[in-house]
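can u pls check wat happens w/ fe (iii) ion
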Amino acid sequence: MTENANPEAAGDPDDRSLSDIDPEARARALQSLLIEEGLVTTDAVDELVSLYEEDVGPMVGAQVVAEAWTDPDYKARLLEEGISAVAELGVSLEEEVMELRVVENDPETHNIVVCTLCSCYPWAVLGLPPTWYKSPAYRSRVVKEPRALLAEEFDTELPDEVSVEVWDSNSEIRYLVLPQRPDGTEGMETDELADLVSRNAMIGVERLGGEL
Ligand code: FE
C-alpha cells in the first residue's frame, strides 16, 4: 500500500507539484519575484503583455481572417475544420484544444465569444486574452444582455434586425469570429486586409467598417 501511495493524496501542501497550482497565480508570483529582485521592471512586463494582447497575438488571427476573405476555398475549409485550416498557415492548436470553431458574421447574424466558466480563449490565434474578457462582468452580462453590453462597453450598436449568437468556450472548444469583409476593400492584398482586422472584432465585441 505505502509503496504506491500518491504523495498528493496525503494532503501535505509541500507535496503538491507545481503543475497543481493555478498558472495565473504562478505567473504572478514569478513576476513579483523578478520585479523585487530588480531583474525586470513593471513597465517592461506591461509593455510585453500589451504587445501580446494587442499586436503580436491577434495578428495571427487577422491573417487567418484575411486569407478567408480572399480565398473562398480556404474559407470553406476554415469553417469546416478550424484547427487544420489554421495549421495550413503554420498555427498549431492541436495541443491546446480539440476544436476551433470559426463562426461567420453575416448581415443577419452577429457572433460573440465568451467563456462563462473561466477564461478559455483561442491563444494560438489571438494571443493573450484582454483583462475584460476574464472579468465576471463581461462573462455574465454578455449572455444576459449582449446588445446593451456591446453598446455601453464597446460602443458597438447592433441594429435590431441583426440577431446575436453568443458562443461559450470551454477547455475543448474555442471560437473565433470571422467578421464580414469591409466594403471598399476589393483588390487589397492579404496583408493590407489583415491590418483592418481588430482583435475585438474576432472576439465579436466590435464590428468592422461596413458590417451592417
Ligand atoms: Fe474557460
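Residues 115, 117-120, 169 surround fe (iii) ion (CB under 6 Å).
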